[in-house]
Design a protein that fits this description.
- There is one protein chain.
- The chain is an alpha+beta fold.
- It has 3 domains: about 190 residues, FAD/NAD(P)-binding domain (3-Layer(bba) Sandwich), CATH 3.50.50.60; about 140 residues, no CATH class; about 130 residues, D-Amino Acid Oxidase, Chain A, domain 2 (2-Layer Sandwich), CATH 3.30.9.
- Helices cover about 30% and strands about 20% of the residues.
- The chain contains 11 helices and 21 strands.
- The strands form 4 sheets. Strands 4, 5, 6, 13, 14, 15, 16, 17, 18 and 19 form a 10-stranded mixed sheet that branches. Strands 8-2-1-12-21-20 form a 6-stranded mixed sheet, with helices on both faces. A 3-stranded antiparallel sheet has the order 9-10-11.
- Strand 15 and strand 16 form a beta hairpin.
- The structure holds flavin-adenine dinucleotide.
- Flavin-adenine dinucleotide binds next to helix 1, strand 13 and strand 19.
Length: about 475
């Protein structure tokens, strides 16, 4: 006979563990979530909804189409965390590849988005499918230079105006593409989950609680923390880059990588009154010309990635598991950054390099200043392909789910797969379903904003980052 209310332990309250908790609790399970930090979603950052994978020309069309679908689900699940500003994808003039080569994929993505909207109107979260993307030749951008910047851009052309006025067009290839890949606000999503998980009667939330040991029993698990040992029917390992530590305790086979990266928080006062789109200047990862990503937040704050070894990437920042341990070992200086803190000197040095990297294409951005410590962290990539962008969850032994997301949008497919696994093991009723429509929140936007501001203050980031550019 299936159990109606299995007891589930989730180790880790990042986006994976917290989303799993919501789905499993909704399905009727009794969930206990253990998170060693003081708040949820405090691990590696996320700022971009990869609704089509257009930041990654190197990945397969199949991965891009999956990212599109998963991103639509994610935007439906966490609407308060989506910043509805589009993304410009520009190729520098020195790139060997041309923008033209992105076109067939963009057409496929537009067609798939239109089909998803035709299938269910609730999927229309990226605007009208007919304008999923738009190409701009140089003449069209030059024509926008004399337009007045709009306080609240309504059309794609209006979003292009600041770029037309400030980008160095001589350094770019054409067409430049504007695509409906929106921003994500991790503080708002973390805030909503904090409020939601605390009030769910099916969830027991243990913050500031480190799981020290897990052990397999005949019909389940015992989970030991500093203060007690509890038994459960099923274990979800959602420990992020530390998933390997739990795997080692459990004794399961594994192959994974862990990568440390950082993004830098700046303030560009001169532009604090204007709304910018997100901008991607493509480039070869790991070289001095690595991709530059310009991600606007309110009040002139801009988060920057530069895919070079002296900005976002780090020497020996990508490490792999070994036959002896599932837990890849990062160098000590990177572990210290995660567990202790950054020196202000390094923060300023790397942020300045990031500003320089982006001001190659937006010269006046050189006046931006360091605003806070970076957003940073280590993430796992299952398997041995560092370009993998779509992964969800593995079930290496019965009653054990190992969350393996690479992009946050994969969490919903991950949660559904765990639910299916519980049903297949007889731990939940065959008829158990959770509809996306049942997952909307009763938490008010105002309460989310207040909690997001608190998280910003607690983590020492500008409070403005608790807000959306396009509320
Ligand atoms: C610089 C950077 C930028 C990124 N940008 C994006 C982006 O724009 N879009 C996107 O989709 N993705 C992005 N990612 C990837 C994204 O951050 C990760 O995929 C995602 O945050 C992983 O979530 P998670 O829940 O699996 O892990 P985590 O967020 O790491 O959560 C794991 C949690 O487990 C807890 N934990 C670990 N061990 C224990 C234990 N023993 N006991 C109790 N708790 C424990 C940890 O404290 C942590 O909170 C980015 C990653 C980086 C590094």
């Amino acid at each position: 006979m299936p159990q109606t209310q299995p007891k589930i332990a989730i180790v880790g309250g990042g986006i994976a563990g917290s989303t799993a908790a919501r789905f499993l609790a909704k399905a009727g399970a009794k969930v206990t979530l253990f998170e060693k930090a003081a708040s949820l979603v405090s691990g590696p950052p996320f700022c971009h909804l990869h609704a089509g994978g257009n930041l990654y020309p190197e990945i397969s069309d199949e991965q891009c189409l999956t990212l599109l679908k998963q991103s639509i689900d994610f935007a439906r699940l966490y609407p308060h965390g989506v910043d509805h500003r589009p993304t410009i994808v520009a190729l520098p003039a020195y790139c060997n590849r041309s923008t033209q080569h992105l076109m067939p994929r963009l057409e496929k993505l537009r067609a798939r988005y239109a089909a998803l909207v035709a299938d269910n109107a609730e999927n229309q979260v990226l605007g009208d499918p007919s304008i999923y993307f738009k190409c701009y030749e140089r003449e069209a951008i030059e024509a926008l230079k004399n337009e007045t910047v709009k306080e609240k851009p309504q059309t794609l052309d209006e979003w292009m105006i600041p770029f037309a006025q400030k980008a160095d067009l001589d350094k770019l290839q054409f067409p430049v593409i504007l695509v409906q890949e929106y921003g994500l606000n991790l503080f708002r999503i973390g805030a909503r989950l904090m409020l939601e998980l605390k009030k769910d009667p099916n969830i027991t939330l243990h913050l500031s609680t480190d799981v020290k040991k897990v052990q397999r029993d005949t019909d389940g698990w015992s989970v030991q923390t500093d203060t007690k040992t509890e038994t459960f029917d099923y274990l979800v390992n959602a420990a992020g880059y530390q998933t390997g530590k739990i795997d080692d305790m459990v004794g399961v086979p594994c192959e994974r990588m862990v990568e440390f990266k950082a993004a830098y928080v700046t303030q560009w006062e001169a532009e604090s009154a204007y709304l910018w789109p997100e901008i991607i200047f493509q480039g070869e990862r790991g070289t001095p010309r690595g991709m530059g990503q310009f991600t606007p937040y309110p009040q002139g704050h801009v988060q920057l990635h530069g895919m070079t070894k002296d900005i976002t990437l780090y020497e020996d920042g990508l490490v792999a598991s070994t036959p002896l341990s599932c837990q890849p070992q990062l160098p000590q200086n990177l572990v210290e950054k995660i567990e202790a803190d950054w020196t202000w000197r390094e923060t300023k040095e790397r942020t300045q390099k990031a500003i320089k990297h982006l001001s190659r294409f937006i010269p006046s951005f050189a006046l931006a200043k360091t605003a806070s410590k970076p957003l940073f962290g280590a993430q796992q990539i299952p398997g041995s392909d560092p370009t993998l962008r779509v992964a969800e969850v593995a079930f290496p032994i019965p009653r054990y789910a190992r969350c393996e997301i690479v992009k946050v949008s994969s969490t919903i497919d991950m949660a559904y797969a765990i639910l299916e696994n519980l049903v297949s093991l007889g731990l939940m009723e065959e008829a158990t379903t959770v509809e996306m429509d049942d997952m909307s929140t009763s938490i008010e936007a105002e309460a989310i904003t207040k909690e997001a501001e608190r998280l910003c203050r607690m983590r020492e980031y500008p409070e403005a980052m608790a807000h959306l550019c396009v509320p």
